[in-house]
Amino acid sequence: MHVGLDFGTTNSSAAIYDGTRVRLLNLDPVNNSPSIMRSTLFINREGVPFIGRAAINHFTESNVGREIEYEWRYLGEQELTLAEVGTVMQALYAVVDANAPGRLFQSLKTHLRDSSFTGTDVFGTRYTLETLIAVVLRIILQRIEAEIGQPVTSMVLG
Question: Which SUPFAM superfamilies does the protein's record reference (predicted)?
Fold first, then answer.
């Protein structure tokens, strides 16, 4: 089966053409408009991914009434070169939400143009940007194949 997928920065949609008509597919069964899916990804502490409206719902529901615990985390060291001092090593720390229930990602495509973004840590697992996008696309593919009842043999992405 041939599928067209618009993987958008904000929203995504997919359609099939049967030779006579185009039919939008329901990528997001939880959304009010199932044929339009927010291009979001939520990964919980157990590493389970959710996309679309389910991602937003999991993020929102798991944060309601939650106590936020901030703590300093060591990130590593950075070499700094200062004009009158020379080169020194600087320890890097960040304040993080220590008991966050998960990570919500939005507008992942926006970061493709940023060569300095090499990846992010999600509860001890390193994800490249390409891997995060692949997680979303894999789930979309599973939903498409479940709806059409057959494997996708080709896909045009836009």
Answer: Actin-like ATPase domain
Mean pLDDT, each 10-residue run in order, the chain (158 residues): 92 93 95 97 97 98 94 93 90 93 95 90 94 97 96 92
87, β-bridge pairs:
81
Break the chain down into helix, strand, coil percent, rounded to 5: 25, 40, 35
Residue 14 to residue 35: CA distance in whole angstroms: 7
Place of tokens 């495509």: 109
For residues 96 and 71, the answer to whether their CB atoms sit within 8 Å is yes
Domains and CATH numbers, the chain: 2-66+101-157 (3.30.420.40), 68-98 (no CATH)
Q: What pLDDT does residue 84 have? A: 85
Structure tokens at 42: 């939520």
- pTM higher than the cut 0.90: no
By residue count, the chain amounts to 158
Instruction: Tokens for 6, please give them.
Output: 């618009």
**Confidence (pLDDT) at 18:** 82
Euclidean distance between CA atoms 5 and 14, whole angstroms: 4
